[in-house]
Amino acid sequence: MGDRGQTLPLYIWLTGILLFAAFAFFVFAQAASARNGAQSAADAAALAAAQDSRDELMTGLQGAVGHDDHWLDWLKGERFQGTGATAAADRLAAENDASVRGGAVPTEAGGYPGYEVSIETRYTVGKSIIPGTESRHATATAVAVIQPRCTFATDADPKKSVRLDCGGQPIDIDPEHVASGELPDASVLFSVHLAK
């Protein structure tokens, strides 16, 4: 009987430790979930900003081929202004219950132009045994770039037919005979991806 009385406090103590560990694990799981959600929102917003500029590149290229002797510069990814990038990032962040902080900031990664986007979740980590988590928002940052997929001869004449090598796929563009809508899809000419 005396031994049982001595083990009861030990059981209570161990149960308390296990409960505290379970609560602590739950807090870390909450924080990890919020962090993952924030990173997904940042990734989506950065990709949206870069895709908007890729669309701008395509619009500029379509207008330049046959009318501008510098149309090959559009294929290098050098001419976009990024006027709609922040709005595109805002839209995608909002769809992921987050807000963009500071807009889509033009940057360069790996030698390619792109955008850095920082977000803050609109939701909080939630209530837990750690004080203050109910008012804390998760934050994350992502960078997405626009990478030209096609190469061409350095001495290519923009007034004549130019052969592009787009990842092993040859594409010929003749500026004198390109009708509107005849250019390859944007995804063939430019890759949009997260910077590593």
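That was protein one. Protein two is written in the same sequence-then-structure order:
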Amino acid sequence: MRAKRCVPVCTRLVLVLVMAAAVLLSPPPPLFAADAPPADAPPADVTVPAVGRTWPVGSHPRVLRGWEPPATPYGPGHRGVDLAAAPGTPVRAVAAGRVSFAGRVAGRRVVSVELTGTGEPPLRTTYEPVAAAVEEGEEVEPGEVIGTVDATGSHCTVTCVHWGLRRGDTYSDPLSLLPPWLLHRGPSRLLPVYGTT
């Protein structure tokens, strides 16, 4: 009698486990509609490894504006992501690298880091407006503070950090540096199995 009763329960349990595995193993959807590239956008740089170990600011900052790749090298778009951050917030290196620039560009304070082990030319992240706490040529580790959010120079309606990523002259989505577990919002949840006793 127990074996007959177990068949429907076990079948439901296996079905739930298969569905959970499919959800967990599928790639995460874009966090925001702005993160999804337009249909006519050039293909993303598939050579971007997920080497990031931390967000530049906070533990999971609000993305005010996502990456919008330009259709042409000089066309309109948004060559990075804008992350909400109050003035004075510590800005951290997302991955290991070497500071390639720390200074002003067009009146804004900028820090750029060439990422270690990402090929030739190396991937380079940029953070602005950031008052640098590092100098050009300095080696940095993931999570190391490279500066603080500058109160002036932000192009957002609220203070933000513009985080960019490029290899040579090709821009990429900086969120692609972060592994899926770091992009995930909130804990995983299993669905209940109804009809079991």
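Residues 41 and 71 are 6 Å apart (CA to CA). Keep this in mind for the problem set.
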